[in-house]
Amino acid sequence: MDIVHTDRALARRLLHGDETGFREISASFIPKLYRFALACLHDDEDGARDVAQETFRKAFERLDSYRAETSLYGWMCQICRNTITDRGRGLQRQAALRRMDVMRLIQATLDCIPAHCEDVLE
């Protein structure tokens, strides 16, 4: 039996509450997902740890949607890629918000200083 058929059977067992299967798959896949995320995140260990855990959580929330078109690990890698992309978007939004906050703070500061000092600071 090939890996996809084996993974389909494993997914069914997990959906039916197989705790042994859950322990086995978490022990096997979480370190692999961590290494995959670590490579994608350019050795950001904390980020990779967070992404691997988030990926595993998302995969189990969506396990009923696994269609065995690829291996279970390959399916989880795609979830990992999407999680990394979402994380990057979130970080970009945070950076943009911080820039806007700094600009507002600068403007508020400039609005409070005497007129004769504005030209120097601007």
Domain module count:
1
* Helix run count: 5
> Sheet with the most strands?
none
Task: Indicate the radius of gyration in whole angstroms.
Answer: 23 Å
User: What series of H and E elements makes up the topology?
Assistant: HHHHH
Shape annotation = rod-shaped
Mean pLDDT: 89
Oligomer: single chain
Distance between termini?
72 Å
Q: Helix amount, in percent?
A: over 70%
Structural class: mainly alpha
For the record, the CATH architecture stands as: Orthogonal Bundle
Percent strand: under 5%
CATH fold type:
Rna Polymerase Sigma Factor, Chain: A
CATH superfamily: RNA polymerase sigma factor, region 2, helix turn helix motif
Unreliable spans are none
CATH class: Mainly Alpha
Number of strands: 0
Spell out the blueprint of helices and strands.
Layout: H1 3-15, H2 19-40, H3 45-61, H4 72-112, H5 115-121
Helix pairs in contact: 2-3, 2-4, 3-4
Quick description:
By secondary structure, this protein is an all-alpha fold. It has helices at 3-15, 19-40, 45-61, 72-112, 115-121. The N and C termini lie far apart (72 Å).
Describe this structure in words.
This protein has about 120 residues and is mainly α. The termini are far apart. The model has no long low-confidence stretch (mean pLDDT about 90). The chain is built from 5 helices and no strands. It has a single domain, classed as Rna Polymerase Sigma Factor, Chain: A, CATH 1.10.1740. It has helices at about 5-15, 20-40, 45-60, 70-110, 115-120.
List keywords for this structure.
122 residues, mainly alpha, 5 helices, Rna Polymerase Sigma Factor, Chain: A
